[in-house]
Specification:
Structural class: alpha+beta
Number of strands: 16
Number of domains: 4
Organism: Entomortierella parvispora
Pfam family, one: BTB_2
Helix content: 25-40%
Order of helices and strands: EEHHEHHHEEHEHHHEEEHHEEEHEEHEEH
Protein name: BTB domain-containing protein
Largest sheet: 10 strands, mixed
Number of helices: 14
Length: 477
């Protein structure tokens, strides 16, 4: 926002020059003001009245106005060259109203540098430059009306959480105390449409580095764990993924994100068309690509990635300043069917396992599939894999790796053989699970790395908790 140039100092006023004063009567109170003061923030209401050549014959040095005298005292201070600041939100409103009434543009610019926000009765005075950070956001919607900031904007939200939101807008890192605090902050970020804050909070935890790489080149591998419903589908990509850039922006850095939302929608449509028109290819193209390439070549490159017979990691890039992170999701309230092949000599922990999850989880996964051009999941039961190093907390006991989990799964399967004939599945109820996402041959691949659950209602009931004795005191209230 361009600031008005500093005004020239006013000439000293002396009692020997009474002819230079004009008298303005505001609701019965007299205010003597010099001609130079009236012309300080010109053109304005007073110069139109006192110095307009059209009213030469009727020119007068007295003016009667029906306004608030207390507010007008600050108007006079402004015209005398002093800095005027609002004492509170009511004073701010009254000053802005009178600044518009008297057409004082400099005063309007001064007053609009700060904004008053009322959050459930707590007033926040905030610099306008601060509150417009992380734009576009909810406050940017108020910008067209910023020069007429009438009654303070009222939000029926938490003042304590708004302090954290304000710290983010001021450029500070927010100290997240616990999971509840993070979820509440995420709700506030979405309410005020602070996309950068929402993206950081949705990560759930700061990204970490894998300490046990399976390959030497993966010794430093950044990953992030997110709850499935918090994932922003637009931030999901495949390792080696290329975004389309306009050829006119060849001077920008490679890997730049889409320039506009409309470009993104066009790419999604073209991507779907290419997937239908181009034959599938199992060879993966190199992620290194010249900057000036056609849109079709980029889409074909992405298609080769998702159609590759090699497992490709799904990555998450929430902001431009964060490197893509390997994506791990947390899913809750699901069922896992461990397929029993019917032979005691066969492994129970092969690739044939089914996830059955809620409709909202299926919808979110299908949005990811559509965004990347992967095959859609047609039903709530889909094949998943178990990591060789899976950690499974089953029926109150912990099992590390498939070698420890295999015997108990086999025992449960044989025990349930009467109700689960060979060739059917052992049904497990999972409270939650951590799943690594990837893609292979155009399909979404899910690998369970950690889970906790129960094999029956009996085992689940055994894990139920009683209400604490403190709850008994509530009966006396």
């Amino acid at each position: 926002m361009a600031m008005s140039p500093a005004p020239h100092p006013l000439p000293p006023l002396t009692a020997s020059d009474p002819g230079s004063f004009y008298t303005i009567v505001v609701s019965g109170q007299n205010f003597p003001i010099t001609a130079s003061a009236l012309q300080y923030d010109a053109p304005n209401f007073f110069t139109d009245i006192f110095f307009n050549s059209a009213y030469e014959e009727s020119r007068t040095r007295f003016l009667y106005i029906d306004r608030n005298p207390e507010v007008f005292r600050d108007i006079v201070k402004h015209m005398q060259g002093y800095y005027v600041a609002a004492k509170d939100e009511v004073h701010q409103e009254n000053l802005i109203l009178d600044a518009h009434f008297f057409k004082l543009r400099r005063l309007i610019e001064t007053l609009r540098q700060h904004l008053y926000v009322n959050v459930s009765g707590t007033i926040f005075k905030i610099a306008r430059e601060t509150i417009l950070n992380d734009s576009p956001n909810f406050f940017a919607l108020l910008e067209p009306f910023s020069d007429r900031n009438l009654t303070p904007t009222y939000f029926c939200r938490s003042p304590e959480l708004f302090k954290d939101v304000l710290s983010h807008l001021q450029g500070y890192d927010i100290h997240v105390r616990d999971k509840v605090h993070r979820n509440n902050l995420l709700k506030e970020a979405r309410y005020f449409k602070l996309n950068n804050l929402a993206s950081k909070l949705a990560l759930g935890t700061d990204y970490i580095y894998s300490g046990f790489p399976t390959k030497p080149e993966e010794r430093i591998k950044a990953e992030v764990t997110m709850i499935l419903c918090n994932i922003n589908v637009r931030h999901v990509l495949v390792k080696g993924w290329r975004d389309y850039r306009d050829l006119s922006s060849s001077g920008k850095e490679r890997g730049e994100s889409l320039s506009s939302h409309q470009d993104e929608e066009d790419i999604k449509m073209d991507h779907q068309l290419l997937l239908q028109q181009q034959p599938s290819s199992s060879s993966s193209s190199s992620s290194s690509m010249p900057a000036n390439v056609s849109k079709e070549k980029i889409l074909l490159h992405n298609q080769n990635l998702i159609q590759s017979s090699d497992l490709q990691d799904l990555l998450y890039k929430p902001t431009a300043d964060i490197e893509p992170l390997a994506l791990m999701i947390e899913i809750s309230s699901i069922e896992l069917f461990a397929i029993w092949p019917g032979s005691v000599n066969s492994s129970m922990l092969g690739d044939q396992h089914l996830f059955v999850y809620r409709d909202q989880d299926l919808s979110r996964l299908n949005k990811i599939c559509k965004h990347l051009g992967l095959q859609s999941l047609t039903m709530a039961a889909n094949v998943v894999k178990l990591s060789p190093n899976i950690y499974f907390h089953l029926d109150g006991q912990s099992y590390k790796g498939q070698e420890e989990l295999e015997p108990i799964i086999r025992k449960l399967a044989l025990t349930s053989a009467k109700v689960t004939p060979p060739g059917r599945a052992l049904r497990l109820f999972l409270g939650r699970a951590l799943v690594r996402l990837g893609c292979k041959s155009g399909q979404l691949v899910m690998t369970i790395v950690k889970a906790e659950g129960w094999s029956s209602d009996k085992e689940y009931n055994a894990c139920r908790k009683y209400l604490t004795d403190d709850m008994k005191d509530l009966g006396a209230l």
